Amino acid sequence: MKPDKNYYITTAIAYTSAKPHIGNVYEIVLTDSIARFKRAQGYNVYFQTGTDEHGQKIEEYAKNAGRTPKEHVDEISSIIRNIFDDMNISYDHFIRTTDEYHKEQVQKVFKKLLDKGDLYKGVYEGWYCQSCEAYYSEVQLEEEGICPVCGAQLIFQEEESYFFKLSEYQDRLIKHIEANPEFIQPESRKNEMIQNFLKEPLYDLAVTRTSFEWGIPVEFDEKHIVYVWIDALINYITGLGFDIDGNHGEKFNEFWPADVHVIGKDILRFHTIYWPILLMALDIELPKQIFGHPWLLVNDGKMSKSKGNVLYTDELVDVFGVDAVRYIMLREMPFERDGHISYESMIERINTDLANITGNLVNRTIAMTNKYFDGVISVNDVYEEIDRELIQMAEQTTKKVIESMNNLRVQDAIKHIIELFRRSNKYIDETTPWVLAKDESKQDRLQTVLYNLLESIRIGAVLLQSFIPETADKILNQLNTDQRSMDSVMQFGQYPLNNRVIEKPEVLFKRLDIEETLKLFEKEEPFIKEDDMISFEEFSKLDMRTGKIISGEKHPNADKLYVLKVDIGETIIQVVSGLVDHFELRDLIGKEVVVVVNLKPANLRGVESNGMILAAKDNKKMTLVTAPNINLGTKIS
What we know:
Elements: E1 6-11, E2 14-15, H1 22-40, E3 44-52, H2 56-64, H3 69-86, E4 93-96, H4 100-115, E5 119-129, E6 134-136, E7 155-164, H5 170-179, E8 184-185, H6 187-198, E9 205-206, E10 208-209, E11 216-217, E12 225-226, H7 228-231, H8 235-238, H9 250-255, E13 260-264, H10 268-281, E14 290-293, E15 296-298, H11 313-320, H12 322-332, E16 339-341, H13 343-373, E17 376-377, H14 385-406, H15 410-431, H16 433-436, H17 443-464, H18 469-479, E18 499-500, H19 514-520, H20 536-540, E19 544-554, E20 562-567, E21 572-577, H21 585-588, E22 592-596, E23 602-604, E24 607-609, E25 612-613, E26 615-617, E27 622-624, E28 635-636
């Protein structure tokens, strides 16, 4: 039985196709902030993340890179983990779907489902998105042949597969959702799942593939690979030591069911339909909640390499720092709607919230405490009515932050803290400490004002620990206080009297000059654009051979073209080539050349051409590519 104070939270496991961008990393930072806050509230938290390492895309990426799939996922998984570590993520377990224990349990789960009659063998025929690794029915398509999620071209496939009987559990799932209104959040996501998928009969789900090899094989039918919807989804229980035979590890008994799965809205269907039905089939308790967060967009568009708008966290951290990037992610992403960022908006947010509101408040307060009282406040009881609003707001901020975090509204929680700091800055202007300092009779009042500021800063910093932990610690260190627990911010007045603040305040965030900062992100145009790159497989299709031009003539219908006969050893081919402006015909005869010989025949102004002679041309001259002293017909590789 899971103890009440145990809290299990997960992210979706990251796909190991390539280095993740800021939109991918947002999810782990969001989940980290929730996990940290729960720990601060006294929960025994287990926070799991990891990498999803099987599938057709992985196999193709590896093949194109000239290495094995395992070598590929080892590298990308390491990159992902390093990014998480660099972003100060406090995960407890990092699972990989290539872990031996996970693979063993996937095979056992598959056999269990088959033995129970929940699986059957058939043939899948329909639309498949290789990018999303998802199947779509005709009714799910908004445009024929186009993926409704990512916009990629769909492939119509026919493939033998084992199918999972989703339909057998549909009514039970609907009843569970109705009986547990918090099961799918936000509410709009729940409505989307019900209206778009559960109102109509569910199609049985293809859960194996035979068209590629990189995956976990079905033990008793090894041409089949267990597909992602079983392989990836059960990481949430195998990571806790789940065992299909009932010999569970301690953590499974201590932490399952999960308190919340944090996932992107694009994979909501798989987590709110396939995953709970899979658990029902295995007689395992369902997770308490699935939260489908929105997307983090650059300007108004989803990030993609083809658009050239991809932002990577390491590049942002190099300029802004870890906590600033964490703050931007969490502050700019609403609970339900997509968030929007740009370089300009990030710079503005850092300057406003972090440098001006937060940094200036801490700096001014520490400086005044040192200037007027040598860093030590010994009196805090000379109150005036103007103090009441700040004190009440500080106490209410704690309650509001707790309420927001209980509802996973992280952006709202951060806003409440910044509003407290904003109000504290206004309090300085209202109380004018520099005026009080000139009046000897107002010294106790001045101490009280500064105490209220120090305490408000302390409360805000304690609450910030879950979101920008390094900055929060810097603030609390400058206050020189050990009062850092959640219990200490439930009531105003816990900052100790006769406590010396740090002598010289540390600048938390420097103001950024927009033009100078934008220059740091300027990139040189790549030598070759990614869209123009070809794979090793594509390159290997080119058949280039050594040859010799043995005869030629001017093209009868084109002044700038020659019609050349090229001996490539076993045969002679005809090539129409645009060399007239660069070579006299007599200079070409007898030339050794390199020819692409497997081009489809092309009709050029009425004459057939069966290849292409390779040449290099700069702004001065053209030179033919040669391979001298090599037998004619030798293949270039």
